Amino acid sequence: MGPDIEGESDRARLERLGRERPELFRSLWAEIGFCFSVAMSQVLTEYFVSGFNVVLPTVVSSLDIPTASQTWPANAFSLVVSSFLLIFGRLADMYGGFPVYVAGVSWLFLWSIVAGFAQNELMLDFCRGLQGLGPAAYLPSGLMLLGSIYRPGPRKNLIFSIYGACAPLGFFIGIFFAGVAAEFASWRWYFFIGAILTGITAVIAYLTIPSDISARRNMGIKMDVPGSILSSTGLILLVFAITDSSHAPKGWSTPYIYSLFVVGVLLLAAAVYVEGWISDMPLLPFDMFKVPYMKPLTVALLFSYGSLGVYLLYSTLYMTDIMGGSPMQLVAWFTPMALGGCIISITGGFFLHQIPGTFLVLIAGLGWIIAALLFALMPLGANYWAFTFPAMICATVAIDVTFTVTNIFITTSMPLKRQGLAGALINQILQLGIAVFLGLADIVAAETRSGGLRRSYQNVFWFEVAMAGTAFALLLFVKIDKAESKATADEVPETEN
Description:
MFS; transmembrane helix; MFS_trans_sf
């Protein structure tokens, strides 16, 4: 637990340790380099997700991608990320967060360069899918490093707040460079700029992240091979079927859609059986959900992050197709969301140990509802300041508060040997929520397109209101205390004894 000071009470000791710089860092600059490296994981992921939506029309035109296949260059990335997070989370627990993180960022760097030279749709889809293995590796290992290095307390709150702030920052950087590339250069520069950012991150990460390889080797953690194969394959087939159903020739009546959906469900059911009753070291241990309020929180986050995916894509489409915004206008219109997210996340880090987490996530839940409601009710030719601006503010409150508070709660609740799985679980919920509910939103849009493009978009926003409302109802059954300085999950049994 750290060095003792004569006459210091246990409470004062925990409070001091919760504010001190971890002993792993020899100086403040070493800590800053580490935090920059890990926080960039959020920037890079959002860059390659949000920015690609802006540059996609230019890519479609350049590579002559047919209408039925236009969503796949975007979906392939998220599909691979969501399907392999748990596997890489286990690898991080086995071999250390340092090697898995650096390898993931380096892999993304390589395939970002190759994607910039894509000559056709198949090559681009292939590169986007392989790009997804990078975030699948560095997202859980990055959260694992943060969760294992920082103790519960104000310092951890601040670092996690900065980490959360980098999500809207990455979103803004993504749409900015995508807009610049689409209007003034070539879409290929979107990938090349992303590769430059990724390369810088890889070098700094290699130099500043403390190695935890030797410490992890002694924990005796093993890979659950059957569970890994069943869960990843099942997720790929399930998400593919949902995502592609709105573009298939006969929708859900298309044979390959319902066949893959059924096979995916059966594989996931088999994975649950193997994980729960056969494997002696399951990929996702069920006792992780025995943490108080973890079950309703997990489901609520699934709906909340689903709302995030729907909001980001369809607000972009609405402002482009209905409001007539150019790529650079979208950058301007999204600025309050990015700037507000940075301000809220960083300043919030100074108050998380003073305000109950329950109150904060409920405020965030209302933000999810109001952001979608404003777009659903927006009249044609509506004033930006009356509808779009407050929607952006509510969205950024919802995203940043939810992400920061719940990440601190989940990582603090898990012992050291499960920090990789904790990071994988957090990002699995995020990516799976976006992929599944975005696929369902596409179905809503496709089935109501006969009423006009604007009407179909509004129906999607009403669908998002329902999702956000469900998340809010579930959050009423969740209790999260203040993020104060306290013993870690590993120290709690020792303290009780």
